[in-house]
Design a protein that fits this description.
Number of helices of chain A: 14
Oligomer: heterodimer
Distance between the termini of chain A: 101 Å
Radius of gyration of chain A: 32 Å
Helix content of chain B: over 70%
Largest sheet of chain B: none
Strand content of chain A: 15-25%
Strand content of chain B: under 5%
Structural class of chain B: mainly alpha
Amino acid sequence: MKHNINKILNDLYQLDSSFKSHEKELKEILNDFIEAKKSFEIDENFAKSLRGQIINRTQNSKLRSKLSFFNFTNMYPKLSYVFSGALITALMFFGAFELVQRDQSSPNSLKLAFKNEIIETTAHAFGPLNVASSNQELTRSAVKGFGGGGGGAGFDQAASSMIAPEFYYSYKYVYTDEELNINDDQLPIFKRVTGGTQNNALTDILSQADFGLFDITKFSNFNIENLTLIEDKDYGYGVSLNFVDESYGIYQNWQKWPNFYAECKDDIVCIESKRPKASDIPADEELIKIADEFLKQYNINTSNYGTPVINKYWEKSMSRESEIYIPEAIEVVYPLIINGQVVHDEGGNKVGLNVIVNIMYKKVSGVWNLRQERYESSLYEVEKNPAEILKVAEKGGFGTYEFPGAEKQIEVKLGTPTLSLVRIWRQAEQPDRMNEILVPSYIFPIVEKPSEGYMYRDYIVVPLVKELIESDLNNIPTMPRPMPLPVEGDDPSAQKEDEVKIESTSSGVVEPAVTEPRPMPLPMPVEEGEVVMQKEEEASVKTDEVVNR
Amino acid sequence: MTEQQLILQFQSGQTDLFVKLYDSYVQKIYRFIYFKIQHKQTAEDLTGDTFFKAFEHLKTFDLSKGSFKTWIYKIARNTVIDYFRSVKEIKNIEDILDLHDAHDFKRDIEVKIKIEKIEQTLKKLDAKQREILVLRLWEDLKFKEIAEITGRSEASLKMSFRRSLELLKKSKGAVYLFLLINF
């Protein structure tokens, strides 16, 4: 900076040498002006987010240039009106596959690349988002409210017909900050896609191997789904490659890391002496530094992720000062950024690359969720009416409902929301698969937690997709079904329903007696879209079946 | 790899190299825009627009006609002008650069406080002079480059600066600052 100022001044004096006598004041003013430059520094998070968008564009651009060879609209102009965006999506998909290929510069190396990209599709390409699969129970958050303000604002937690506790609080979430304003009629949602990575060359090699115990060549059409590699050295790591989900995992090779439980065996005193203490916990900056260095050392690409944060969930229930529980490892989360937006889970917490730092050895002991981030995007209508959005927020967010009859209702204040992407899960076409979908949502921070009850939630999440809000407000789950009431005079030791008594008849033939089944309580009315547990067939004893046995 | 080589490789299909250009220029372009707009959110939006436009058009950029540096600054400048036009109907482009002063646009309070110290000085200069000040002092651009960006000739700029120089020499304080617009 000093050199620059001098250069500027020298140029100035060449124009007019009389300014030389004011050099001191000039330098002062120059310094002030250059100092003011710092007021205009770019926000790091924004710069990273924009960088991510640029990368997406460059990748889509590469994809389009590949596809120009397969441009149907040029080859068959009329068909351009016939074929839907879905076909184009399929073509783009095919072109996007990063096949296993041999690096030209190193023929013996294999290139298995997981690609990151976003592929635009037509609007509503993923179908309705609020419909449950006929093969699966509708997944709904359980009713919350055990004085806890929500057991995780789950969109898709398994339904459970919980019985209301005797005493609990209910919460009303109140928002009074800035007016909510959504300008767009539609926003993109993103569905993660996998299956683009093929490992043919690897499969070929293994398919020809001689395993000694059986002839593998008799099998055909192999595809490698998982692969695990282990470092055989002190503090070594294992690497797991999942080609189905297209994700990597790095974890400690347990055999090669110190393990005080194994050393101490059953000696409690020994275990207690070696357990981590609060003083072992590094400062946040140090944790992040350890994580950063590891990622750098192993060339782990972090271009899709934002500024790391420390996951402190373990401190929510107990303070580190109490030393009741100090974890051996603490997680550093690098938030995933898709389309310039940070991705969160249903609880409003950032999700992304997880780097686990062992606080006792000050080393990274694991890396999770390093994955190919490839998505299709599709536009869906958003709810523009703030009142509807706030209705969902007020009850605790999407998929959260309260049992009626709470002893007390407590108001909880919400802060100004941020618009981000939230990951939800929806049934895929295959019965054993779920689709990972990112939906634009408002994430309201809980400003102040009430002193009554126990609230561990930090956020209330409301997805902005209109059909999700409509289904959430219109499909309130019914009360838990009442337990059948005992009939007067019932003896628990008496004959059970449908039990067959064996009695002797006058002819000496043993015939079972028929017992009339007790009347079952009438079922609660089922609302459309509600979970209906598959019931076992009601047992009924029919006379003819018994007689003809 | 030089910037020129990078651009040539981009134009031959390696579009992912654009992110290197982004890394080199994002801070400068943002600062350039933010100084004019003085509203963070808008400056961020316009910065994004600038780079998206640069990405879309880099393929047809002719290296023989100028540097990438001046080209992207020009895009940024035009993006700001388009923005001002969209929020207020302006017929004369010369008025646009003064628009921020004359009209009540949103400004970040923090920025306002931080540059208060030099704002009094800056008020003595017109918008074009301030623009040149930023480009010279903050972005360390040569006068020739500034001329390319602003679309004015070096000669006309020098003449107007000399006139301004005379004017400011008569007033206190800011005259020294203004003389930073050197050549």
